């Protein structure tokens, strides 16, 4: 069955202008009568329009839609997984912005907390952890942590502590991007060859606790720097954030509890 553009427009509840736009973007390929210039559409085009509507609903761009329409079913599944990750990242970002705006309009009555940043010294025993490493911004870090939890859940592994993030460096080209590694401590009951499972060696370290959202967590880092400097010790390695209370527990950022720690040079202690 062939349909003229007016008929096809009514059938699919889409404007003729949009149909022409899809034609310009090569999303639809109607038959064209070379004599009168009319466009004729088929039942296959109805299916294509349905797919385009669905992909637009899923927030794919026109260029993305064009590529998806050329994919097979397995490739589409992979692309959908990527899109889900992208949308999760945006959802987390929007959720945080909305909560901040709500607090601005009508601040919550919270118990005032003062971060004392008492610094503790200890010995971290060796442990294994499943790790994922990526260059991300703050919003994408939450998505990376979700991916970490999903991987660990699929492994049916026994977790032995809270998830953590190791901040290796800040990207020189973008100060909002971090080279970060997220990890989940595990109990290894058998040998596993997965390269994403790392062994963290025993180390001397110092730590402090930050309560509340992450806007002022830099003061926790500063407390560790100051303690090490005043006691004559050097820091040895990247900072680690361990999340005791985070978005997996509450959406109220004022209730977050985060341990910030860093290894210290063990040779310094031999001199005391």
From TrEMBL:
Superkingdom, natural source: Bacteria
Keyword DNA-binding: yes
A Pfam family hit: MerR_1
Coiled-coil boundaries: 70-104
Keywords: Coiled coil, DNA-binding
Annotated HTH merR-type domain residues: 2-71
InterPro entries per UniProt: AraC_E-bd, DNA-bd_dom_put_sf, GyrI-like, MerR-type_HTH_dom, MerR_fam, Reg_factor_effector_dom_sf
Record's protein name: MerR family transcriptional regulator
Organism the protein comes from: Paenibacillus oleatilyticus
């Amino acid at each position: 069955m062939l349909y003229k553009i007016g008929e096809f427009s009514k059938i699919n509840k889409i404007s003729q202008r949009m149909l022409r736009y899809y034609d310009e973007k090569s999303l639809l390929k109607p038959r064209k009568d070379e004599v009168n210039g009319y466009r004729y559409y088929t039942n296959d085009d109805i299916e294509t329009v349905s797919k385009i509507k669905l992909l637009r609903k899923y927030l794919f761009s026109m260029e993305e839609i064009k590529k998806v329409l050329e994919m097979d079913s397995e490739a589409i599944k992979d692309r959908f997984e990527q899109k889900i990750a992208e949308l999760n990242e945006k959802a987390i970002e929007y959720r945080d912005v909305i909560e901040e705006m709500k607090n601005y309009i009508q601040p919550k009555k919270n118990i005032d907390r003062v971060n004392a940043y008492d610094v503790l010294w200890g010995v971290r025993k060796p442990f294994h952890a499943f790790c994922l490493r990526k260059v991300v911004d703050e919003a994408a870090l939450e998505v990376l942590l979700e991916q970490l939890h999903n991987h660990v859940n699929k492994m049916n592994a026994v977790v032995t502590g809270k998830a953590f993030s190791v901040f290796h460096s800040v990207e020189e080209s973008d100060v909002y991007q971090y080279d970060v590694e997220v990890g989940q401590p595990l109990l290894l009951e058998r040998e596993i060859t997965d390269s994403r499972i790392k062994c963290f060696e025993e180390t001397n370290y110092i730590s402090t606790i930050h309560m509340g959202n992450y806007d002022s967590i830099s003061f926790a880092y500063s407390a560790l720097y100051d303690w090490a400097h005043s006691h004559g010790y050097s820091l040895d390695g990247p900072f680690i954030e361990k999340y005791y209370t985070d978005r997996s527990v509450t959406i109220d950022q004022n209730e977050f509890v985060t341990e910030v720690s860093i290894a210290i040079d063990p040779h310094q202690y031999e001199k005391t």
